[in-house]
Amino acid sequence: MYDSITYYMYRHVVVAGTFDRLHRGHEAVLTRAFAEGELVTMGLTSDEYVQKFKISREARSSFAGQNSTPQILSFKERKQHLLDWLATHGFMERATIVALHDPFGPVVPQSPHDPAQRDIEAIIVSTDTRARAQEINRLRREAGWKPLTIIEVPMVAAEDIRPISSTRVRNKEIDRQGRLIMPDNLRPELKKPLGRVLVGDEIIRSIRSHLAKQGETLIITVGDVATKTLLDAGVTPSLAIIDGKVGRKPYSEALKCLTRSHLGKQGETFIKLQSGPGYISDEALEAIRGSFTKTKAMVIIVDGEEDLLALPVIAYAPVGARVYYGQPPLRPSTKARDFEGQARGGLVEVVVTSEKKQEAVALLGRFT
């Protein structure tokens, strides 16, 4: 049984929607509903409703699975996602899920003897569905019913500040948490090295030659192999980004080397955060940008995958900095000319220039 001692503003509230690809925006609305009401009726649009009201004529064939356009999940699937969410949060005994076959559901009587639920006191909506709630209240007044209190929940922003929506999740712009997802058509471009590929002894010769000529230079490594390679050569990066993996297999040598270095004695320079695979998190962007305002060297340990973080590093690093990241060998089927002849694996050395910064910013812009 739920805790009957807890006091709620309303005895009975309603929340409704399609709840396709249940995401963080949906969760904000649902959480508010259970904070306001002791009992919550959850209206879930039926498959028939989706066909009639949610899908354009051009997209209806995709709902039937006749092409590759992302489709709205079936009522059965969406209901199961809601049930899973309710079970996870301990709300099962307070919730009732009803199928919606029209835009107004159980809160507007369709006839004088309609069994619609008169005891519902409030409706929980997001900013973009407030107009529907106002229309519901107009119809309730016409029927002689008391209007519902409208409780509006602000839209939840994705990492690009635009609202999270099921459409954006279906189109693979963002995931259900609002994190930007790398578009499929961007993957081939990101395999192209952004600088010169160094292999074998070239790596150490290039680094030492540059240091001898330029003296103090900001050096950044992205990846465990790049970081360990430079540390083994006696070069401590100003910023090292690792994820404890090589080829998605566990790899601890880079972290061991960093811990043994003088950086290991500065605990505050080690930051742990989440990012990837396939997206760049806000906290990763903030940490990278902030690292270039500090005088101490910094290590970022990524829970996820650090592969994409070379882009914001190049975008935020000052002109003249050098960035090193791993470049896996291209598959034999890949045409070397597509990569300007740089088909070898090794470390990519990027000398940060205004042009390179613009290139990185342009690639980052394609995540939105």
From TrEMBL:
<keyword id="KW-0547">Nucleotide-binding</keyword>
<dbReference type="InterPro" id="IPR007164">
    <property type="entry name" value="GTP-dep_dephospho-CoA_kin"/>
</dbReference>
<keyword id="KW-0342">GTP-binding</keyword>
<dbReference type="InterPro" id="IPR004821">
    <property type="entry name" value="Cyt_trans-like"/>
</dbReference>
<dbReference type="GO" id="GO:0005525">
    <property type="term" value="F:GTP binding"/>
</dbReference>
<dbReference type="Pfam" id="PF01467">
    <property type="entry name" value="CTP_transf_like"/>
</dbReference>
<feature type="domain" description="Cytidyltransferase-like">
    <location>
        <begin position="15"/>
        <end position="171"/>
    </location>
</feature>
<dbReference type="InterPro" id="IPR014729">
    <property type="entry name" value="Rossmann-like_a/b/a_fold"/>
</dbReference>
<protein>
    <recommendedName>
        <fullName>Cytidyltransferase-like domain-containing protein</fullName>
    </recommendedName>
</protein>
<dbReference type="GO" id="GO:0015937">
    <property type="term" value="P:coenzyme A biosynthetic process"/>
</dbReference>
<dbReference type="Pfam" id="PF04019">
    <property type="entry name" value="DUF359"/>
</dbReference>
<dbReference type="GO" id="GO:0016301">
    <property type="term" value="F:kinase activity"/>
</dbReference>
